[in-house]
Design a protein that fits this description.
Number of domains of chain A: 1
Helix content of chain A: 40-55%
Strand content of chain A: 5-15%
Mean pLDDT of chain A: 94
CATH superfamily of chain A: Nicotinate-nucleotide-dimethylbenzimidazole phosphoribosyltransferase (CobT), large domain
Distance between the termini of chain A: 37 Å
Family (chains A, B): Belongs to the UPF0284 family.
Radius of gyration of chain A: 18 Å
CATH class of chain A: Alpha Beta
CATH architecture of chain A: 3-Layer(aba) Sandwich
Number of helices of chain A: 14
Largest interface: A-B, 22 and 22 residues
Strand order of the largest sheet of chain A: 3-2-1-4-5-6-7
Keywords (chains A, B): Glycosyltransferase, Transferase
Order of helices and strands of chain A: EHHHEEHEHHHHEHEHHEHHH
Organism (chains A, B): Halorussus caseinilyticus
GO molecular function, one term (chains A, B): glycosyltransferase activity
Oligomer: homodimer
CATH topology of chain A: Rossmann fold
Protein name (chains A, B): UPF0284 protein ACFQJ6_15485
Number of strands of chain A: 7
């Protein structure tokens, strides 16, 4: 079992008010690089930030790392358009950072990354993979891709108060800039990815198409961004079985209809609850308030913990321990 | 515990008769990329070759991968000058493939890679690391570096019949081309690395200096190339404890005096014997004949297996199983 995390960036994240993935816009561009290091080493090594939101909510990489300490799986990070260096080992698929989707051609590397990641997925000898993402601003590009495919539906947010109207405006501007109407990219996932998507969606969708077609069992670990990956894979003609594992925080989001997404894209959906309600540790309390919700394979990691019989109380304990290690020597959040 | 493998290339390997690390010169340039994939995934994924020598001796990556399936350690591959793509995740330190050491300035990225790898080593949160290499032609550049530092001593070979005179000629030409006499680079490891070394030695030596100085326990896993790494770290002023773990095949090599190397560079030396003598499986028999000997952390992996109480018979069984998986679908060696 291998967790494959696609880490990248889009300048769409710099649009005011879209994302909580990082304390501030300057730090946010480092978040995927830091997430990769937290996943692989337990702490940032080269990245100059610890991704903690202004309210003190840590990156979900903390939860995934905690589960990795308790359950038995490999992790592999794919450089799906990182803008800042990382000391984590990464697989190369030729992806470059995405531009603001309101540009005319924001992700020119999308078709190449899709193809390279598809080949990587096809050749990887694992029997089972879990696919995850880390990209600030990624729910907006997910909405862009879904809209371009003609699959418009709600998307989640890393903010408790989802700026969905703002996202719709951005997506409308993005389609305009590319001369596309909603649905114009149906059956053409690479067009959607290049014009209104991001390099993480491009790499992850290619990987899923390649892995699933070669007989590897694929679980999409995440929220609406992974629903967009499923939609892209379906529009690429994939008809193999796919699973989706996410957290209760996404499932409880009124902006998201996981049941219909599961039905439309033929996904076997698993929802896990890490039991963060009623906790008062900074590592977990903000999740219960609806912040962050998902990312870096958190839902998939929790599902793996569950499958291996690791009690959620043990996971929470390890989450606190990873978090405490992480902020040790830092000024701390808030 | 983390095994950190430095994977790279030098065009010195293209000089006739120096190396057995690959079936033929065209395939040899892919060996480190394939080794990284075998270590991480158990099989080549993107590399178009299975590194097996003309006589059928498989790359020592097979042994290290086998132990990784049985013992508990993480692996990280550093891109220390790969010339061909790999699907394995790699850490970037700015190293580029090395040119033939008989050029005037064969490794211009050596000082930068040394510095970047040193910082990586310093910041890595692990308590203990094991350092390994994969680079065809690497014993010749090791001899070059040792000579430039004024530490000339015998070096081992991946060939049963060590072409040591040929290596000495190449090193003499290399020193000439750079206007250096033996010993001219004493106390200046970066000069030795840049002028007569390779990007793997540069990255590994920087990493060892950084990791050891920050209090991480360091074991050098390999033969004479790792002795060169120790010499470089000592000439960089490192006085922390260092261990060296290698195989009986290196220790038995009359060209190598491990005891004096251990004394000169203050190394705590461990030698392991995987018990390949008398075996007739292609995965192991050629090792008993003195081929390959070491590489990709084989000796260090065997020492870890020993420390964790994994019986060598179990290791041999797993080596055969990794090998059989590897050549499945291939024409097979010989």
């Amino acid at each position: 079992m291998r967790l494959v995390v696609f880490a990248g960036t889009t300048r769409t994240a710099e649009i005011d008010g879209l994302s909580a993935a990082g304390a501030d816009p300057e730090a946010m561009v480092h978040t995927p690089s830091a997430d990769a290091e937290i996943l692989e080493y337990g702490a940032p090594v080269r990245a100059p930030v610890v991704p903690v939101s202004p309210t003190g909510c840590p990156t979900p990489a903390v939860v995934t790392r905690a589960v990795r300490e308790l359950a038995d799986f490999e992790t592999t990070v794919v450089d799906a358009g990182l803008a800042e260096p990382t000391a984590a080992p990464t697989v190369t698929v030729g992806a470059r950072p995405g531009e603001d989707v309101r540009e005319e051609d924001p992700v020119p590397t999308a078709p190449g990354a899709f193809a390279a990641a598809r080949q990587f997925g096809r050749r990887l000898p694992d029997d089972e993979v879990v696919v995850a993402e880390t990209i600030p601003g990624g729910t907006t590009t997910a909405l862009g891709v879904l809209t371009a495919l003609g699959e418009e539906r709600g998307v989640s947010s890393s903010l408790p108060d989802n700026p969905i109207e703002r996202k719709r405006e951005v997506v409308a501007d993005a389609l305009d800039a590319s001369g596309l109407d909603p649905g114009d990219a149906a059956g053409d996932p690479r067009l959607a990815l290049r014009k209104v998507g991001d390099p993480v969606l491009a790499s992850a969708a290619g990987f899923v198409a390649g892995a699933a077609r070669s007989g590897t069992r694929v679980t999409l670990a995440g929220g609406t961004q992974l629903v967009a990956v499923a939609a892209l894979a379906r529009h690429a003609g994939l008809d193999s079985a796919l699973s989706l594992a996410t957290t209760r925080f996404v499932a409880d989001d009124p902006a998201v209809d996981l049941r219909s997404a599961g039905a439309d894209f033929d996904l076997d959906v698993t929802v896990t609850d890490p039991g963060f309600d009623g906790t008062d540790h900074p590592a977990t309390a903000r999740y219960a308030a609806g912040e962050a919700k998902e990312g870096v394979g958190m839902g998939g990691a929790l599902a793996l913990a569950d499958r291996e019989g690791v009690p959620m109380a043990r996971v929470r304990e390890e989450v606190r321990s990873v978090y405490d290690e992480l902020v040790e020597g830092e000024d701390g959040p808030g």
